Amino acid sequence: METLDAIFARHSYRGRYRDTPVPREDLLKIMEVGLAAPSGCNKQTTSLIGIDDPEVLKKVHEVIEPDVAPTAPAAICVLTQRIIAYRDRCFATHDYAAAIENMLLAAAAMGYDSCWYEGHVTDTDRIGDKIAKVLGVPDGYELVCFLPVGIAADPVTGPKKKAFSERAWLNGFGKIEQAEQNDELK
């Protein structure tokens, strides 16, 4: 799949997954693409844990309440380190967001489906901390995202997006002549 096709085809999938295993080399390739993402001041604050062992996945799912993607045959957990990169700024959130988007696009390009579960993992009940404990994550790292990886068992549909001209302009806010032309091209 071409890059632009993957971008437009990718949608968050929250349904059941087929029981088709994700080959380890595919899971590793998705992770490698994630780590190729840009990183503020090259601090490389993002780390990843791929999970393809059914017993480890089972233990992880036991601490996720309510559970998400329990039928996915693989997953990637995203870790971050809060490191000051420039003056008093930390770009960890930017770093892991770029890595996650890279992985979502790679998964789509490779024929897999996924969903970015962050809020559920980092909410006040601290599910990420529970997952991190299961995975043996040391202090200094925060588990911020759970990405299931697999092939959707049900049709994947995306939400309706606002028209390009409602959210993008050229040469100034609200300038619509070129943006309207882009809407017509779709």
Q: Could you give a short description of this structure?
A:
This protein has helices at 3-9, 24-35, 54-63, 92-109, 119-122, 127-135, 164-167, 177-185; strands at residues 46-51, 74-80, 84-86, 89-90, 142-149. The protein is α+β, with helices and mostly antiparallel strands and 186 residues long.
Characteristic terms for this protein:
14% strand; three-stranded antiparallel beta sheet; 186 residues; two-stranded antiparallel sheet; 39% helix; alpha+beta
Note poorly predicted spans: none
Compressed to H and E, one letter per element, the order equals HHEHEEEHHHEHH
Largest sheet properties: 3 strands, antiparallel
**Structural class by helix and strand composition:** alpha+beta
- Radius of gyration, in angstroms, nearest whole number: 18 Å
